[in-house]
Amino acid sequence: MIYFDNAATVWPKPEGVYKFMDEFFRTHGVNPGRSGYDLAVEAGSLLDKLVSGSRNSFGGDEDAPSVWCSAIT
Fold first, then answer.
1. Residue 70's pLDDT is what?
2. Higher-scoring residue by pLDDT: 54, 23
3. pTM for this one?
4. Contact between residue 52 and residue 65 where contact means Cβ atoms under 8 Å apart
5. SS3 track for 7-50
């Protein structure tokens, strides 16, 4: 199991993080998989790429399940 919780402990964030998140939420801040409108579909695609890229980065099997949890601390 790999567990990341850096966001809860690092403050202040680097300026680039604030800029990226501001732009992201202004342009893509929707719930993926909650609807069929274009932006929700695009957000779902971004999430799929994140999971796939992360799995590949850690040498995981493409068919192996991944579990992503929010607010687990």
1. 67
2. 23
3. 0.59
4. no
5. HHHCCCCCHHHHHHHHHHHHHHCCCCCCCCCHHHHHHHHHHHHH
